[in-house]
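ok trying again, last paste got cut off:
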Amino acid sequence: MTPYSNLAYAQPAAPTRTPRAAEYEVIARITQRLSAASARRKENFPAFIEALSDNEQLWSTLAADVAEEGNGLPQALRARLFYLYQFTAEHSRKIRADSANPEVLVEINTAVLRGLRGEGAAG
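nice, full thing came through this time. structure:
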């Protein structure tokens, strides 16, 4: 057996992910961080602001993606996602001014995660 023959039978370092699975993972990670940082925001406000900023960057990236002409999502879904970006940006400003609850952003992200899992909208 050559030293390279083991490589042929080795498990891949990382399983191949679909773009949807990768999106899910990123959104889930940011949502978890935002939720945890929100719960500890009085003890560690800088971590909370960092998590809030990461969530805003996520939504900015999603908005840019759905605004692209070649985006394959249905137009109505693209419009809803863009609206959520706008809401998230405005709500984040209110959170920074201490006039809004960050849990709404966690709920929005969680609803998007359910959609990515194929669970659809509740209600």
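cool. The two ends are 59 Å apart (CA to CA). The mean pLDDT is 88.
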